[in-house]
Write a structure and sequence with these properties.
Nucleotidyltransferase, domain 5; 19% strand; 46% helix; alpha/beta
Amino acid sequence: MTTLALDLGTTTGYCVGDRRDALVSGTWSLKPGKFQGGGMRAVKFRQKLDQLHAALCIRQVFFEGVRAHKGVDAAHIFGGLMMTLQEWCEQQSPPVPYDGVPVGVIKKHATGKGNANKEAMMAAMRELGFEVVDDNHADAIALWLCQQEPRP
């Protein structure tokens, strides 16, 4: 089953596929342009979801279920992207099931520590053979693995 894992934010990490040896992953910059409003994040995000779905027929979605943010702006951006994702999933035919996975669960699965820092998450994914570009990318891969493979 083609699963999409997302680390939501202005730089969104994604990992999609139906098996580990055929994953497509990376990051999307959802930052609005100089003359664009903040709503462009949602527009860009929806376009990316549509493109992935057209190419790979997404059947389930997991996102990093963040419960607290350090800043108000980050919380607003996360909430807006989460709502956009949920709406997108509900509007598909058939609807695509989605679920948030607590950050600590993802980190514990990836590193053995539920409070692992960004560097530890990137190192854990590199140790598994993934060429991660940043912590958002690493988190998305870790989330996909957490939902697909038993902990090593």
